[in-house]
Amino acid sequence: MQEQTSLFSTKIARNIALFVIFALGIAIRLYDLTDLPLEFHSTRQLLSALKARGMYYETRTDVSSEERAFAIQQWKFRASVEPEFFERLVAWTYQFTGEQVWIARIYSFAFWIIGGVFLYLLARRLTSDDGAIATTAVYLFLPYAIIASRSFQPDPLMTMLIIIFLWAIWEWSHNSRWIFVILAGLFGGFAIFIKFPAVFFIVGGGLGAVLSRGSIKEALKNPQVYVMALLGILPGAAYLIYGIFIAGYLGQQFSGRFIPTLFLSPSYYLGWMNMLNLVMGGLVLMLALLGFLFFDEKKRRFLLGLWIGYATFGLYFNYHISTHDYYSLPLIPIAALSLAPLAEFFFAKLAELTSTKLLRFSAFLFLGFGLIAVIWNTRNQLNAVDYRPEAAMWAEISHVTDGYNLAGLTQDYGARVAYFGWRTITSWPAYGDLLYSTERGGSRDLEEQFAEITAKKDLFLVTDFNDLARQPLLKAKLESYPIFADGDGYVVYNLMQD
């Protein structure tokens, strides 16, 4: 794009725009930092929180042996699909800060911000400074991205590593320097190591970059391609071999991710669309798909590889892509990149129309107002619920039920009572789990399942009343037992008195 048709036509204007975008991106993510990690996929966040606490308590000598043993037991007991790298990092930081779970929020959004830097660099290579600024703004200020990038789970880290890989592989595709071969291989391999689904985006981006510079036949003659592939495969493959064949804890973790019958179910396709609508909205998705068409052929091949990678990912993880919105988190930088040429065209036209300093200043004000409006709306969303009082409720439940064995229907499969109440509970399946079991051809008998779960249990705790309302047979069963205790947000049924 020619300099005179650029909205951010000077280096000072570009630097100010980038400073404002990144400063506001950090500021909104710092808001309400110390609230409990329950605002976004609390089950997944508490899984990491319990693991990090167990790792931390394993190194402590200033706590009771009971607390130490419980924390370690909760860490070891809970399922591990991904390597516990992020949890280890947070647990190490606890050595200096004490157990402050909001530390994980800082790490998560720092990963996202770093990803934004490399996304800007990549978008500038694909389009222009104007397109890159717009790409970065979309990546940082999509409301879903703001919330998701603060979560204690490996996905923000994985997304950052994918973006750095894409930047490195695109640089390699243009100059073939060995430094980018090493960087692409290392960051691609690390992304797959952190979370296996990254392989779809790494392979898609890698194939797109290879095809943007030549044919597959030519690539197969290039030793650099084999070095990148080897570096990318080794970390994840080593973890899979260890987890499946040596330690054995990964054997069952990959089952249930692919359900062939879902391809015949409209709920799968509608669910996937609902997740996309939640993550970025139909308008952004439409503009991203249109923007993809504005790239030249070589760049379009690169972006096409990314979109195909995401589509293949969604077809393989068909249950989760249609029910778990954060599975589409890596699509955000892909969509933001795809929007770049449209933004470039829009800013060029806006630059032509704002021929005076007053009009140009007004354009900047309008753009700034849009960012502030998004930030304010997200701030209101974060401010809508204060989860801090829940810690006291779980502590109260722990005190009331002290000395009794618990079963129950609670949020997050008992993770809240474990983390905030330091109690173990045998969880009754949520309504969604019962539907999932039905999708996979399972069946259940209420009486048999109730007897199995409540065997040797004294009390049945209910805190998730919305889910209980979806299970009327369980509700009727529980109402046949006397109430042991109740309070604000919970009811405890006495299983010892039939």
Topology:
Blueprint: H1 11-30, H2 42-58, H3 65-77, H4 85-97, H5 103-126, H6 129-141, H7 143-148, H8 155-175, H9 178-194, H10 198-213, H11 216-219, H12 223-246, H13 266-279, H14 281-292, H15 297-316, H16 318-321, H17 331-353, H18 357-383, H19 389-400, E1 406-409, H20 415-421, E2 426-427, H21 431-439, H22 446-453, E3 459-462, H23 465-469, H24 472-478, E4 483-487, E5 490-494
Parallel strand pairs: 1-2, 1-3
Antiparallel strand pairs: 3-5, 4-5
Helix pairs in contact: 1-5, 1-6, 2-3, 2-4, 2-20, 5-6, 5-8, 6-17, 8-9, 8-10, 9-12, 10-15, 14-17, 15-17, 19-20
Give an account of the 3D structure.
- The chain has a five-stranded mixed sheet with strand order 2-1-3-5-4.
- It is mainly alpha-helical.
- It folds into three domains: 8-35 and 106-383, no CATH class; 42-101; 389-494.
- The protein has helices spanning 11-30, 42-58, 65-77, 85-97, 103-126, 129-141, 143-148, 155-175, 178-194, 198-213, 216-219, 223-246, 266-279, 281-292, 297-316, 318-321, 331-353, 357-383, 389-400, 415-421, 431-439, 446-453, 465-469, 472-478, and strands at residues 406-409, 426-427, 459-462, 483-487, 490-494.
- The chain is built from 24 helices and five strands.
- Helix 2 (42-58) crosses helix 3 (65-77).
- Strand 1 (406-409), helix 20 and strand 2 (426-427) form a beta-alpha-beta unit.
